[in-house]
Amino acid sequence: MHDVIFQSPRALWLLWGLPVLGALFVWAAGRRRRDLARFYGRPMAGMPGRTRRRIFFLAACALIITALARPAWDKTEVTVKRSGRDVVFMLDVSRSMLADDLYPSRLEQAKLAILDVIDRLQGDRVALVAFAGGAVIKCPLTLDYGFFRLGLEDTGPETVDRGGTMIGDALRLVLRDVFDSRASQYRDVILITDGEDHDSAPVAAAREAAAKGVRLIVIGLGDDHDGRRIPVTTADGRRTFLKYKGREVWTKLDDATLRAMAAATPGGVYLPVATGTIDLGKVYGDLVAAAAKKELETGRRVRYQEKFQLALAAALVLLVLEALWPRPRTAFTLGLALLVLAGGRPAAAANPRVLLEQGLAAARAGKPAAAAKDFAAAAAAATGDLRALSLYNLGTVRARQARELEKKDPRQAAALYEQAARALKGAAQAEGFAGRKDAVRNLEVALRRRAALRRQK
Question: CA dist 259 to 125, 192, 213, 217, 382, Å?
């Protein structure tokens, strides 16, 4: 064993506390001997058993601190290659996207669909452009998916100053200012809109994208037959509908324009969601993640195998010995048994049904955070109805946590409602799931409460 490194070396500063703790033990032992001597009227011998237990305890503390410092050795050099595509999400934030033919609105459904994609990203760079009458780059191309989420969360009709819908101008902005002009492939634009456009030549812009090797994946949202009115809230809090020259404005999906845009690019795809549902994460997996990728970075990395588990195991044995020192053989046997049990727990925890039962027990015990963790692990490991049931319970627990935080921390409550909505959406989309209607109802409540909190913010 050589080339030992500590990946969190600052933790080793805690070792300076051990001499202080040892000195306190010595002082306490001396004081105890003096007190006993005064009581019995003669000097008392030391207690070697107690001394050994304190040594075991101090040694265990030293090993735990060593584990916190993450010791590692067995150095290896590996070649790391990172590849991916550049994906720009173009999100329509015009007022027509507030229509509620998709609950709670076209815009909120679009944002949920984008979040489904972010959970499945595999090394692709992503960017976000919000557009209406103008366009704003909310997030440039990045691998920082957390930053992308923040940009998406704060995106709404107020993001763009100018009203209307100029799809063609927004796409030209993407081609000019977002994509690298030197690259000619491995680039996609996922456009989510209701298709209404105010003379910005969107099909011509799509042809410009095709000339630069950019593929369009177009998602059309909204009622394509009768259309829907656009709800607005007045200054006194009343809900009414948008009017122009005294008449209510109706908006519907412009299917023909979007279909023509997708057809103008190589490999372009148009998905007319209308007022239905879409698993955009699956679309991403089928069309983007499975496509050819460019090599973004190649290099050699030095990796060490972490060995903190050895220090923790030794510390556990010492703590058991310290607790049962008068019977060292029993203590040693019990310590080994604990190690075997600890090593066997992960295999049992991988059973999704066991995880689901653990989550239900934690929820009944009033421990929502632990319950959510178990439900999420069960959903990740399960399939079919068991996965849907785990997602349903996860969404229910997250919604309950959000309700308790609405007044204390509205921002955190909104984030928890978002997590609840995503879990409940997964349960609602599971075919044959007995609780599907309940999942849909709870999903509507979570989305409505999240929207209310954001308006309040």
Answer: 26, 13, 18, 10, 38
